[in-house]
Amino acid sequence: MALCLWLIVVAPVCSWGQRPVDTADSVVFQPQSALTDMEFASVSTYRGPGNTDPRPNNKLPILLWWSSNLFPHFPGDTERVDCAHSSCLVTSNRKVQLYRRTASIVFYGTDFRAYEAPLPRLSHQTWALFHEESPMNNYLLSHNVGIRLFNYTATFRRESDYPLTLQWLPSLDYLLKPTAVPLQEKNRWRQAGLAPVLYMQSHCDVPSDRDRYVQELMKYIEIDSYGKCLNNKPLPDYLEDTSTATGEDRRFMSFVSRYKFHLALENGLCPDYMTEKLWRPMHQGCVPIYRGSSSVADWLANNHSAILIDDFSSPRELAEFIKALDQDDAEYSRYLEYKTPSKITNLRLLEGLESREWGVNDMSKPNYLNGFECFVCDRENERLAAEKAHRKNPKQNLSPQPKMANSSHMGCPLPSPGYGPVEHIDPNDG
Ligand SMILES: *[C@@H]1O[C@H](CO)[C@@H](O)[C@H](O)[C@H]1NC(C)=O
Ligand SMILES: *[C@@H]1O[C@H](CO)[C@@H](O)[C@H](O)[C@H]1NC(C)=O
Ligand SMILES: *[C@@H]1O[C@H](CO)[C@@H](O)[C@H](O)[C@H]1NC(C)=O
Question: Tens digits of per-residue pLDDT, 305-321?
Answer without folding.
Answer: 999 999 999 999 999 99
